[in-house]
Design goal:
Length: about 60
């Protein structure tokens, strides 16, 4: 988690709405949750593109 925070999010701290550590936690949670066996009941788990889209854009439409 420290490397993810330091290497991926800290260089972009001025662009983030969340602190880097929390952003890393969100990414890890989305990634693990998307592929955890037995967690999703559909045959369409989140793709890597889905995870990136939610992480960078959120789930709300921007007007």
């Amino acid at each position: 988690m420290d490397n993810l925070t330091r290497l991926v999010f800290e260089p972009h701290v001025d662009e983030l709405r969340l602190p880097p550590r929390k952003a890393a936690l969100v990414l890890r949670s989305l990634t693990v949750g998307a592929w955890l066996p037995g967690l999703h009941r559909t045959n369409q788990p989140l793709s890597s593109d889905d995870v990136i889209d939610v992480l960078l854009g959120g789930i709300l439409l921007h007007s």
